[in-house]
Amino acid sequence: MNNIIEFEKVSKSFGDLKVLDQLSLEVKDGEKLALIGPSGSGKTTILRILMTLETIDDGFVSVNNEYLWHEKKEGKVVNASDNHLQKMRDQIGMVFQQFNLFPHLTAIENVQEPQILIKKKNKSEAHDKASELFNMIGLNDKVDHYPHQLSGGQQQRVAIARALAMDPKIMLFDEVTSALDPELVDEVLQVLHKLASSSDTTMLTVTHEMNFAKDFADRVLFFDNGQIVESGKPSDIFTNPKEERTRSFLKKFITDIN
């Protein structure tokens, strides 16, 4: 299986704070990754770099065998142009902690309109795709509701459908349940489970929901201080982590860590 994402000695700082420190990472096409670790360890920065919301200070990032923040021109590697960034961005979808739905559009219009504006689909195609996704997220009865008429969990499910409607090769989820009331968390995680089991889309999820990470991921990465401290199958990371830093972090969430 080919790598769809590669980070090669990538560093990123915000002022004096080094958030990523010579990070190297490879993600296989279709792989489901859970990124865990303390706040400020660099997890969300990785997603934001892939979404071209944050630049890098050093190193290289590749998506689908093309540089992300660089491009080749006349045999030289140069900084990426806006056109190149836009082309690369089209392959990636991201769902944020906040739902960011358009308040003046209905739920289904929130999923249709980006397809029409960005993917240049006609209204009928966009509607068919949106209807299919509302069926997947279990909100067929809410298509004509406006965001303020939906619960937080329902809004987040619509945000997931909106990102999926753009047919991305890679989906990024940044703590998508952290803004929800506890009783609404499961409905969103169930949608992600369904998506992970039925789709060959590459998925990277930053989460503090360890039981979800255990069930969802092919591989779990534990981050601390801008580096990958440990990487492995969920069954290994969550039952018998090798590194003391991983163990001490997970003990806050799981009682039976070896």
Commentary on this structure:
This protein has 258 residues and is an alpha/beta fold. It has a domain at 94-167. It contains 9 helices and 12 strands. The relative contact order is 0.16. The mean pLDDT is 93.
Tally of DSSP helical segments:
9
Give the distance, in angstroms, between the N- and C-terminal Cα atoms. 32 Å
Strand neighbour order, sheet with most strands: 8-9-10-3-11-12
Major sheet: size, sense and barrel closure?
Answer: 6 strands, mixed
| Category from helices, strands and their pairing | alpha/beta
Shape: globular
Poorly predicted runs are none
What is the H/E string?
EEEHEEEEHEHHHEHEHEEHH
Helical content class: 25-40%
Mean pLDDT score = 93
